[in-house]
Amino acid sequence: MRLLALIIIVIPGLIAVLGVKLMRDALFGEFFFLFFHSIIQFIFGLFIFLAGLAFIGGFILHRDRKRNLTKGRFSRNRKD
After folding, report:
1. How far is the C-alpha of 14 from the C-alpha of 41, rounded, in Å?
2. Cα distance between residue 44 and residue 38, in whole Å
3. Which of 11, 23, 38, 60 has its CA 20 to 30 A from that of 30?
4. What's in the keyword line of the UniProt record (predicted)?
């Protein structure tokens, strides 16, 4: 079970790293073979970086909610 959780975290982490690499390469003018303009490459890199980061954050929040570690701040049944 822990191996599955590790794989679930590693794959979006690698996708986020690829996004950072695409953004860095766009800033320095090195193009990936799929993109024809640096702006498009940078925006795509930013998008997959944010998607990978959001997935990892959501995974950690879900795990913490399940273990009651959020102290009510991020609980689903919160009543203000």
Report:
1. 17
2. 10
3. 11
4. Membrane, Transmembrane, Transmembrane helix
